[in-house]
Amino acid sequence: MATSENSGGATLRHAFGNVLTFFILPLIGVLAFSIRLFSVIKYESVIHEFDPYFNYRVTQYLTKNGIYDFWNWFDDRTWYPLGRVIGGTVYPGLTLTAGSIWWLLNSLNIPLSVETVCVFTAPIFSANAAWATYLLTKEVRGTGAGLTAAALLAMVPSYISRSVAGSYDNEAVAIFALIFTFYLYVKTLNTGSLFYATLNSLAYFYMVCSWGGYTFIINLIPMHVLLCIVTGRYSSRLYIAYAPLVVLGTLLASLVPVVGFNAVMTSEHFASFLVFIIIHVVALVYYIKGLLSPKMFKVAVTLVVSIGMIICSSVIAVLVALVASSPTKGWSGRSLSLLDPTYASKYIPIIASVSEHQPPTWPSYFMDINVLAFLVPAGIVACFLPLSDASSFVVLYIVTSVYFSGVMVRLMLVLAPAASIISGISLSEAFDVFARSIKFQPPRIPENSHSGAGDATSGKDTIKNGAAKLEKQSGTDKNEDSFKERPSKKNRKKEKEPVEKATIKSQIEKKLLVLPLETSVIAIFLLVILGAFYVVHCVWAAAEAYSAPSIVLTSRSHDGLHVFDDFREAYAWLRHNTDVDDKVASWWDYGYQTTAMANRTVIVDNNTWNNTHIATVGTAMSSPEKAAWEIFHSLDVKYVLVVFGGFVGYPSDDINKFLWMVRIGGGVFPHIREPDYLRDGQYRIDSQATSTMLNCLMYKLSYYRFVETDGKGFDRVRGTEIGKKYFELSHFEEAFTTHHWMVRIYKLKAPKNRVRGKTKKSKASSKGSTATSSKRAGRRKKNPWH
């Protein structure tokens, strides 16, 4: 009778937990979606940053012209005069996802614009990422940890920074694909199901379509497989989880045009192939072990290992030969920057010039993951109690993501899911301990006149009674399991009594090791306060730090809120006041926005695939006015756009980026030297600046007529008066300057008409004039970039 009551109570608790989970998960999804809407509520529904404008433009083309035209689209409005094949150089996952959502909504007679769908794609997939985190953490440590991890990820600022409404970038869908791929891998690892292994390959394919960070997956999973093999945790489930992923996943990845044969030819993928060979050797060894006697097994292992070593040596030799034939050893520039943080600054300044490729500071960890940074160590310890294949994978995930986030601030985004999972496990375990301490609190011993040995005896009796009760309860639980499994009598006889006693003893010790009631209550209260602090910080970060679109800026002062809409003002002027075929030159940061919002052809943009082309623009900006005009004129440029923040105090302007233009330009054209622009090693724009700096095109286009604003020419960003205040432009003319002087557009003056010289009658003079004209022609034909 008691057994049936206990079984009914357990069933009721299990059903109640499922119902509660069913209601909590949608609330977590709503939280993840709604906390990212501050940008729309406070500002407007607009695309953010720079790269999202290119993605938005590509999505518009896809929805208008169809999938086949998208794959074959040659964009002649970028990288003039080279152009760009969009279908073969873009990760199509984000575009195809948003385009499919738009098509589905319009099929259901919900007429949303493409821009609206693009704005809300990231918040939608943040909810999906939270649910995927729940599934992954549940596979590792149960439902409670899964719900906690999902709630933490829904609000973590590092993920919010890349998934607010309007942040239409690849990471918007890639983080969901990353977590979901890891979930299916762990699910396959726990179940050994080939069905989940196939789904894992498809999820990996979606990740490859979405983001270049897929190389993190195809290196992390082999590392975990190798770790399991080395630590003696090989099983058939591990083989099923890994082998189909490498074979099917690699075949699917090669179908993505931007990846193609890189899936088998670049060094980022070689680790997966090497581990693929190793796991087959190990599987063969285990298979032979089951067939042969121990003596014959030793001989067979020697033979198999010898053959395996020969094969592995041959494969490694081929790989080394392929890698050695590449100048970068088969690695991409960004991958080498992750392995060697100093590589980009030494050899590829275009990568080092991007702010999100810089290493983070310590305060940025507290800003982006907040209290999770303190919960991660406790979560790692909890993963070892006990250690399983799934928990070891999570530990490896957090260790590698911490390293990569320390190299590149952009990869704080990869750290966010790992920190949320580990912190969810630590919080769940902590609440479990404290709640169990309250629930199984031993009865208080009444105070009496007895002391000393009598108190000790009574305490021992109490513990014995509790142990007897718990042993009885464990016996009841054992009876419940027997009713469920119904083992045969033979199997019951085969069960070992010491194992049963050890299990019962461990359960008793676990339930008897309780903390004092006051300690447990205080600890739970402090955890709730910690969670409240985390929620407040995340809401502040979402509302204030990460909601403002970079294209519309705001500032507060004593006289209220000021809105700076200069970027859209400048792009609108270009769109309405220039010819459709006019070419616009600017630094590569503004290429995507210029093409998408002004619909004008640009010389370089944010794709940064051609370092020489970018160096050409950097050389023009670093050169004197006449030499710069010759470079731009040779590229058929009609207008030059510069961003200037000295008037309003906008720090991310072209003057602050100018040294990167010098470095990138000097890397290709040696006559541009950085020391020529520095005074005693310092970058200055005041009266102490070098003549090269004061006469370069960037300085003139930024500070032309600037002294007219206040009579002094005081730069609010640099905090000083400019060195050269009064000058005129000889080869450029000011076409438009926005209201707050943040964007300035100049037009190239037309070349002067040629004046023919007088005809000489004498033969000698004709020879002289011919020689002179040939010299002039030689000067004209001289490459203006040198």
Descriptive report:
With 786 residues, the chain is mainly alpha-helical. The protein has a domain at 562-748: Rossmann fold. It is 65% helix and 6% strand. It has 36 helices and 13 strands. The strands form 5 sheets. It has a 5-stranded mixed sheet, sandwiched between helices. β8 (678-679) and β9 form a beta hairpin. α1 packs parallel to α8, α11 packs parallel to α13 (236-253) and α30 runs antiparallel to α31. Mean pLDDT is 83; it is low at 449-464, 466-503, 758-767 and 774-782. It is an enzyme of class 2 (transferase). Its EC number is 2.4.99.18. The chain crosses the membrane at residues 20-41, 85-105, 117-136, 142-160, 172-197, 203-227, 239-264, 270-288, 300-324, 369-387, 394-412, 512-536. One of its GO terms (cellular component) is endoplasmic reticulum membrane. Its main location: endoplasmic reticulum.
| Alpha-carbon Rg, integer | 33 Å
Number of helices: 36
What is the percent of helical residues?
55-70%
Secondary structure: number of strands: 13
Structural class designation: mainly alpha
Strand order of the largest sheet: 6-5-7-13-12
What is the level 1 CATH name of the domain at 562-748?
Alpha Beta
Please give the CATH architecture of the domain at 562-748: 3-Layer(aba) Sandwich
Can you tell me the CATH topology of the domain at 562-748? Answer: Rossmann fold
